[in-house]
């Protein structure tokens, strides 16, 4: 079965598929299969390793379900809404502003409910599904509501729409644990929920999704400079500023330092734009499709002083926001201070103030999709995923040439040696061509075969996924060689005897 579509391959090979399939599925829910769950785990590991090891962030994990109070304070109860309109005939709900934009090809940014309602009528926008009349425009809150506990004393509750607020609430405790110093970085990984109106974009728009959100608490008097900015200042970025967008300009390629020098953004935001683009490229996402886009004044949240997204230009879904980087000022902590009556002030050298926050909010499902799309390769009859060994579900697969004469036992011993050394190693057996085909579609960068000669020369063949070159390597060197070629320390062709 040959199929060129990335979604079909992802489904067939078990990266991900729509959830609840046997009951007809519900939009916005996906299940990660054996390969996808591993790929997602590796992508999360990359982000976690960077933020915990290199940025010194504290890692925390808060509940997904919470009483409503924090979401009143954060503004989500009041304004975490989408303008919704329903078909009077078939009942299908739509995003009112999106439908209008599709019809008029004009932005609805900043328009009120009444204006949208009027324009839908004036432009005779009708139900795309059945042509029926559209009526009843209203603000629809995207939080999933439930209750904690039974009876009269049950508590109104919500599934969290983001992790950020659950990091702000324990700020005082985190500040103490961080030895009362700023800047203080905290990162949280986990699920969040948005009851989207009618999601039809696979992993790109989910009702239950995974996030990694880092919050840096800063001293507002001392937030201009980032101490490690020199490490990224030469990183080239494709940049679209708010001014470019207003003037309909295509944007520029700039070094991170240029963003700061031209006063387009702060060192903190430029630093994390560069860090994020580098992380995405290291995951295998096509760097030429990544763009740093600044939010325009009319799309940015009112409390944020500056917001940027890194976007990926996807074949299937158009532009996808992979991470949002925002200076949220002291808005969130001040709101929690006001609503909880608990002080969020810190005291640093006699100055009392509420810290500012720079937030770096990664989706995880979108990078997973973008890696899969970016890494799909067609080479003649062959289809493979060119995942870098840092994210590939498996780094190496081990096969016996045949399923007899003691070869499987020896191949399993090699797999065990590699697993013990910390590599993600898989064992498989069958017809060798079929085994390679399977690993190509799983994106496994290296395959090791134990054959009849292996018994005599104590060596095995390693095959490289991308160009199918093969080298012969002694079994006692296998752990070092695999380490060298996975890290790129040694070129594959030089890591053993190249076979012609
Ligand atoms: Zn309809």
Query: What is the architecture of the largest domain at the second tier of CATH?
Result: 2-Layer Sandwich
Structural class: alpha+beta
Give the number of domains: 3
Strand order, sheet with most strands: 3-10-11-19-16-15-14-12-13
Proportion of residues in extended strands: 25-35%
Give the CATH superfamily of the largest domain.
Bira Bifunctional Protein, Domain 2
Describe this structure in words.
The chain has 500 residues and is of the alpha+beta class. The chain has three domains: 6-76 and 147-374, 2-Layer Sandwich (BirA Bifunctional Protein, domain 2), CATH 3.30.930.10; 82-141, Herpes Virus-1 (2-Layer Sandwich); 394-499, Rossmann fold (3-Layer(aba) Sandwich). Helices cover 32% and strands 29% of the residues. It contains 17 helices and 27 strands. The strands form seven sheets. Strands 3-10-11-19-16-15-14-12-13 form a nine-stranded mixed β-sheet. The longest helix is centred in the N-terminal third of the chain and has 21 residues, at 34-54. The radius of gyration is 26 Å and the shape is globular. It starts with 5 loop residues before the first helix and ends with a strand. The structure holds zinc ion.
What distinguishing features does this structure have?
Herpes Virus-1; 500 residues; alpha+beta; 3 domains; globular; 6-stranded mixed sheet; 9-stranded mixed sheet; BirA Bifunctional Protein, domain 2; single chain; binds zinc ion; 17 helices; Rossmann fold
């Amino acid at each position: 079965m040959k199929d060129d579509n990335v979604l079909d391959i992802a489904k067939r090979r078990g990266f991900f598929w729509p959830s609840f399939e046997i009951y007809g599925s519900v939009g916005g829910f996906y299940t990660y299969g054996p390969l996808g769950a591993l790929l997602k785990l590796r992508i999360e590991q990359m982000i976690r390793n960077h933020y915990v090891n290199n940025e010194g962030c504290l890692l925390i994990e808060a509940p997904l379900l919470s009483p409503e109070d924090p979401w009143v304070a954060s503004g989500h109860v009041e304004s975490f809404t989408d303008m919704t309109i329903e078909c009077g005939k078939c009942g299908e709900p739509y995003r009112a502003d999106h439908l209008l934009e599709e019809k008029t090809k004009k932005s609805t940014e900043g328009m009120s409910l009444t204006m949208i309602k009027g324009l839908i009528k004036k432009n005779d926008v009708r139900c795309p599904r059945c042509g029926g009349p559209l009526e009843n425009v209203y603000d629809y809150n995207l939080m999933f509501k439930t209750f904690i506990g039974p009876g009269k004393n049950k508590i109104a509750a919500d599934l969290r729409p983001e992790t950020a607020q659950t990091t702000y609430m324990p700020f005082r405790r985190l500040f103490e644990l961080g030895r009362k110093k700023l800047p203080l970085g905290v990162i949280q990984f986990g699920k969040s929920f948005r009851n989207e109106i009618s999601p039809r974009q696979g992993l790109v728009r989910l009702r239950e999704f995974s996030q990694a959100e880092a919050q840096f608490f800063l001293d507002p008097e001392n937030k201009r400079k980032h101490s490690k900015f020199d490490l990224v200042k030469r990183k080239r970025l494709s940049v679209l500023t708010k001014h470019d967008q207003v003037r309909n300009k295509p944007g520029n390629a700039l070094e991170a330092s240029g963003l700061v020098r031209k006063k387009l953004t702060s060192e903190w935001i430029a630093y994390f734009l560069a860090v994020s683009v580098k992380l995405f490229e290291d995951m295998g996402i096509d760097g030429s499709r990544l763009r740093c886009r600044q939010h325009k004044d009319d799309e940015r949240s009112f409390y944020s002083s500056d917001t940027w997204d890194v976007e990926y230009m996807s074949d299937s879904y158009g532009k996808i926001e992979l991470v949002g980087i925002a200076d949220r000022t002291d808005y969130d902590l001040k709101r929690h201070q006001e609503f909880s009556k608990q002080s969020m002030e810190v005291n640093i050298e006699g100055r009392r103030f509420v810290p500012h926050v720079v937030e770096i909010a990664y989706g995880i499902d979108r990078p997973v999709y973008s890696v899969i799309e970016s890494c799909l390769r067609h080479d003649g009859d062959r289809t493979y995923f060119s995942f870098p060994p840092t994210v590939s579900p498996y780094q190496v697969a081990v096969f016996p040439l045949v399923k007899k004469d003691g070869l499987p036992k020896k191949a399993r011993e090699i797999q065990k040696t590699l697993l013990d050394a910390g590599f993600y190693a898989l064992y498989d057996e069958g017809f060798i061509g079929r085994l390679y085909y399977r690993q190509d579609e799983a994106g496994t960068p290296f395959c090791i075969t134990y054959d009849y000669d292996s018994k005599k020369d104590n060596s095995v063949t390693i095959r490289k996924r991308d160009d199918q070159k093969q080298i012969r390597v002694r079994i006692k060197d296998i752990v070092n060689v695999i380490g060298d070629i996975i890290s790129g320390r040694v070129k594959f062709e030089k890591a053993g005897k190249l076979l012609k």
